[in-house]
């Protein structure tokens, strides 16, 4: 069972936390703690053998922690997610397959597409697909429609699995640090449109993909994970895109695993990841 | 400042340890803890902001830990090492260079060769080279001569940097878990002689190197780190060996860094590495 | 358009081949040639801009090549494959998804399982699933039943996607160098049963997967590709297996891509891979 | 023996080249050919068993190639290089060591530093160190002094091994595509000053290094090779820089190997690398 804690740092926090656990008879089988000295922030992920009453422990821990501490004992073990897509299938297929075989670490509630292309594959896995067209309407109306679909599911995270629309600051704020995006480049290289074309033109020997939380600064949210693959002159632009998709799929899958296992903390615009 | 602890596991160990530190006013800026449930063993590496009296803390910690606990507060920050070589220069050169520029995390006291080939490069860096010939003498006598060279230096670790002699159980026991070897294969593949020839014949697409502690089971000691490089049909056996050497150098360098930073614990025949 | 050639080596082969192509007005846009000097064998993969009459070129090339040369001009661009499975879904799902979106480079004709577990996922993609139970019958009868299913499809390759049965020499000979297997280890390490348990017990820091052609020497066929992932002490055996599956999926996918793009040649028990 | 050819593309080039070789009785043991279709350029690297009269073959080949073709038969097997440094030792030490043991594939003629810091290590290897101070003088004068040192050596390549000065267009043009630089980032990310600080601030999970030819567009020359290493939140800026240096050393070493083995061709602002 996992305990995650995030709060202002001070001397004696580990002692206070571990004493609460020891008094209740819990054994810490694995612990990661990190203090960001510049920000004076404390992060911990603790695995204990088993906990009979998570809520009680949560209250006991809160008492010994500073104000505004975030403490979660046994955080939702199966997160609920909604997946946003446009036309590209690679990330979605991977998510649907893992979800189907219960190895995703989350439950896909619904897939939302602004194009109908991926309705077929989604429904093959008995997952509801909702088409929310973005064309010929204002962003306000589009996002209001998205919200109507999303809210009943009460999702823990929204996964942008190659969703090719920019979300408004209002929308993002509503789901702050709950939106995960896969960006088709090794950020901050090739920010913006057509990163594979940019990479091809530049003749790079490695291409990357970046999974990150979405914030109001486009392509600038906290990075969760990055992956790369080597490329060379023999790849055409089409080859590059194809190779890049494998990499995007792998990067997003890794990021989701880390987040769903409660290994990722956000510290300003960076992440602390207890891998 | 680093604190490392290894002992029998029991409920409340983290609380006991961190309470000692908190009472003395020390702040834990980074902590890694792991319990091997099968072996019921506890391992921790704690970084605190600074410690005025390491010895006092060590005694205080020992009091709250189980019998036979190993606790080191501020373990030797600059380890003393003796390097063993035969004829291949790649690992040694890397060690000598890092040692020269003080980025090795250890001080090379002396290089021992059973052949004179590497005397020249060693002495270029003002490090004493001692030739201890192994031919035409019994292993007992050879190892007695090695001991005569080694002991005055009181080394923390012996580094076998492509040392092509097998050491006796007696010798190894004298320096138990203090001898680090670089093995030119991805153990346990290609155990034994000529691993590159074996790899070449088998047509593998990846070759590896393994840095491990030396125990009495040849090639079977606890693995510290492993590295690989991709290879293909176009490499001759000579190319394979050349490529492998880069990899060996990198693997040994990484293992030394991990060990010298007190990140490696041994648990039976495996390691716990807090990277 | 691709031309692949494999034959006994002799001086002037490239000249002979390229002269045939030049006379017919074809431009070589990419060429890889390799001679195995020990075996005196010649391998080439040539990409030309376009070919109006592949069969004619094939005949022209055969005339200038030594006896027993293998020459294929525009080899089947979409291979037909039959996939063999037992219970594990990860490789199969990946194959079915790529097949569905036409990015596999091959057409899945049918999935054969010796257990019914993967019937559901297969049929979701409208691919026929054929259950051929292996229990309570001789291997002869089991393999005769397999043959009955396979032969009508005239497959180019059989893919063992975590198929947990050993095939007889007779069966393998029938499909010589047409059966691709994914082995859950970094061959030749951990040959045999339970490689992840073996890897766990040995405390390795890297685990691998090997895609290879199946020959009569179990786990000893020519290696097509190998992939690895780093692991550490914090992974349980279950974690190790889970991590390994991602790696197996990636290794098999890569091997299929290489084979289906006609980049892989077999030279005795090794492969020449023009990546 | 290696033959490299670069010229305008046309149908029949491979036939023309290989016919010249076949007529002279040479056997092609390995060949890589690539046509850049956008640029209509032809690149080939051919390995033949042995050549008795390189110059004669070169003339014969030139006769069958288009105007302005570059053809080199048995290009200088041991390149002469001059190494430029400032204060950081890691790349230089690696170069000096390989040079000393004759595994660099080139001969270091001289090391030029604009600071005296690396004089000591250079001279330990009996290589001349020339201090050319850049302070308190115009770039013209500084570069004139550099030229005075360089020219007598007639170097094939200049290696900027962490040389922290920007060279003028005039200087670069003099040694066009003969200057190799190691850039401490995954270009084009973090162009400009302090890339590690930029990477640290951005919280990236991977840092890179790029070896490239120097052209007049700063940080924009053709990329030869790129390497990366994973990093995480636990690394301070100092740790990041230290880790990055290992990566820079490896990337520059790889680039030099590729260039010195005549595997790198430049095609506009990109490279064709026959690895």
List keywords for this structure.
homotetramer, alpha/beta, 275 residues, 29% strand, 8 helices, seven-stranded mixed β-sheet, Alpha-Beta Plaits, Rossmann fold, 2 domains
Kindly describe this structure.
4 copies of one chain form a homotetramer. The first copy, chain A, has 275 residues and is an alpha/beta fold. Chain A has 2 domains: 72 residues, ACT domain (Alpha-Beta Plaits, 2-Layer Sandwich); 195 residues, Formyl transferase, N-terminal domain (Rossmann fold). The first copy, chain A, is 32% helix and 29% strand. The first copy, chain A, has 8 helices and 13 strands. In chain A, strands 7-6-5-8-9-10-11 form a 7-stranded mixed sheet, sandwiched between helices. A 4-stranded antiparallel sheet of chain A has the order 2-3-1-4, covered by helices on one side. In chain A, a hairpin with a 4-residue loop joins strand 2 and strand 3. The longest helix of chain A is centred in the last third of the chain and has 24 residues. Chain A is globular and about 60 Å long. Chain A starts with a strand and ends with a strand. The model of chain A has no long low-confidence stretch (mean pLDDT 94). Strand 2 of chain A pairs antiparallel with strand 2 of chain B.
In short:
Four copies of one chain form a homotetramer. Helices cover 32% and strands 29% of the residues of chain A.
- Could you give the count of β-strands of chain A? 13
Global Rg of chain A: 20 Å
Number of domains of chain A: 2
Q: Compute the number of helices of chain A.
A: 8
Q: Which two protein chains have the largest interface (Cβ within 8 Å of the partner's Cβ), and how many residues from each? A: A-D, 30 and 30 residues
Shape of chain A: globular
Assign the structural class of chain A, choosing from mainly alpha, mainly beta, alpha/beta, alpha+beta, or little secondary structure.
alpha/beta
The residue ranges of chain A in which pLDDT falls below 50 over 5 or more consecutive positions are none
Give the oligomeric state: homotetramer
Strand neighbour order, sheet with most strands of chain A? 7-6-5-8-9-10-11
Mean pLDDT of chain A: 94
**CATH architecture descriptor name of the largest domain in chain A:** 3-Layer(aba) Sandwich
Report the order of strands and helices of chain A: EHEEHEEHEHEHEHEHEEHEE
